[in-house]
Write a structure and sequence with these properties.
Layout (H helix, E strand, L loop, with lengths): L7 H25 L9 H9 L3 E6 L2 E6 L6 H13 L7 H11 L1
Antiparallel strand pairs: 1-2
Length: about 100
């Protein structure tokens, strides 16, 4: 979505947020996905993994996503989510630092 404005700073922040999202997605693919899924574009990944029936259940102050039993990629999704929980993003992200400096200063 293009949210161009007349403000250079607002456009820069918009670009940096999109760049951050793209870089996080690429890192997620590299660290958490099987090799066969690493070549997926964002659109294909969304189509394959996020277009499925599911229900959010809130119980005991915990929210759980219950996927449909016939979800085609269930066997792939579970290891990816486990890997996400185990992975740590330890190095600082220069784009986030730049974004924060713009927002704060």
């Amino acid at each position: 979505m293009n949210e161009a404005t007349g403000s250079f700073e607002a456009n820069e922040i918009d670009l940096l947020v999109k760049l951050l999202a793209y870089n996080l997605y690429e890192r997620f693919k590299r660290e958490c996905c099987e090799p066969v899924h690493r070549g997926y574009t964002i659109a294909r990944f969304r189509l394959e993994f996020f277009h499925c029936a599911g229900t959010l259940v809130k119980h005991s102050r915990r929210i759980t996503l219950k996927l449909a039993k016939n979800f085609a990629h269930h066997h792939t999704w579970n290891p990816m989510t486990s890997q996400v929980l185990l992975s740590r993003m330890s190095d600082p992200n220069i784009y986030m630092e730049k974004l924060m400096s713009i927002l704060m200063g």
